[in-house]
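Annotated sample (chain length 581).
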Amino acid sequence: MSDDQKVFMPSRPLEPGSDRYGVLSGFEPGTRTLEAGFQIAPPFLPLPVDIMLEKDVRVTLRDGVTIHVDVLRPAGTEKVPVIVAWSPYGKGQGTSTSVMGVFGLVGLDNGIVSGLEKFEGPDPAYWCARGYAICNPDIRGVVDSEGDSVLWDRQEGRDCHDLIEWLAVQDWCTGKVAMSGTSYLAVSQWFTAAEQPPHLAAINPWEGVSDVYRDLVLRGGMPDHGFAQQLRDYSFWGKNQKEDIIAEADRYPLMNELWQNKIPEFDRITVPAYVVASYSNTLHTAGTFRAWRRIASRDKWLRIHNTQEWPDYYDEENREDLRRFFDHYLKGEDNGWEQTPRVRYSVLDLEGGDTVDIVADRFPPSDVTSTKYYLDGRTRTLDTTAPTTETSVGYEVGSNPDLVSFIARFDRETVLVGYPKAHLRVEAQGSDDMDLFVLVQKLDAYGTPLQQFTSPNQSAMAHDVTERGGSILRYKGSDGRLRVSLRGLDATLSTDDVPAHRFDRIEKLTPGEIVDIEIDLLPVGLVFYPGEQLRFVISGRHLLGGMMPRLRDYTPANSGRHVIHTGGQHASYLQLPVQAR
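Output written by the structure step:
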């Protein structure tokens, strides 16, 4: 039935002159050798070894649709394993002005890659030199491939399953296939692994959503379509149709079969997995941690870094770490990878002294206790003792200020590692609904908010584009959101630390009604030194702005007055993951 619920719109061909068009974007079937020293364009890294490029190879999927793939592999006759980079971004876009601009935005030199890589994917210059092939597909409906494209869907999992099985029997392949990449290339791995292709040996999802409804189009139940629209309108270039995810969200604002089919079947993901996450990516963080928790893989590792995904992915030390994982599972090397700690996490201090690669056997670490910090509306403080006196505080929607906040000052070093949540008692006056946004900030001892850029670019332009948005590039704290009429919890998915909402029914508020709500915030790793403070903010507007630079921000559907009840019978609290000293 979900296929009947899909909405499609015309796509557009990828034309020469487009900022998404690269040197290898044209349709040119054939095989050639790129010799060591070959440079696809002046800014890019010369190749360290000879690479065979098989371009625009036809692959037929189970329903008869033909897609085209580029295969880049070491020259010679030795069989090699292959890594797949699955996304709707054209397989030749690595040299496009768009991708080069993205590197410039985050402050990366284009010379660290060869330009042969897919956007956000593994670089053949590195991997072919180490005995791997790379497969860059134009997926269903993209560029010259047949069919209509879909966005983060089980259809993609089936299609990639078929590609993996095709690759495994090629005469140059050992039969071992892996997947790697960030963002879209990470998300597609959840869907593919759930299809359990027999020759998929390992996956490496490096930050990506894992639930299209909750992470992309209806976060917290709110129709916040900024990034979804950019993804729809500036990707999936092709000759047929592409899925209109915005029209679907408008037509189906509640969880239904369409959205269920855009959630991977986590319990079917059993392949070895090396998952990489961060606390700061407001698009990817919640989904990456959700998938990490729920996949059934017995052999799974988590590394939580302290920067942004692209600098982290192309960092030489991190690629070497990933190679050890792939060498173990794709080449059978006894290299001690299995002794790698199952969790390596970071703790941010937002003052230049982050600690990384802290070892644990789980996340949150076993020495973390979920601790309630109660809101006191009279003193505007947070305390581990609940106030006995009931007090309410609030704000008029659209006023200044249109928020309320509460502060805790720490008298000793305190480390938070894990999942915060807010449990609030709220009331809407003059309205039957509320869009609520919450944020945990770190303040220094003098009350100044502390923030941290996640990428090397810290120029005036970087300040400008992250002043009221661009939250993936500048970490300002852990946030969450909820449309209160969609407050119903999913009893099967919710835990004491991480509430999960059903989003399948609307429960409007009535005049004078005080309701309990729980809001999950992005996981944190944050240290507070003596005298420093934590500020918890509740507002009727989005506190961080659009997640990407220049994205249209969401305008909440709010009116009237929002009231937060604290103390006594109406105790509200912020639950924080406090690590033992």
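Annotation: Residues 396 and 561 are 4 Å apart (CA to CA).
Annotation: The mean pLDDT is 97.
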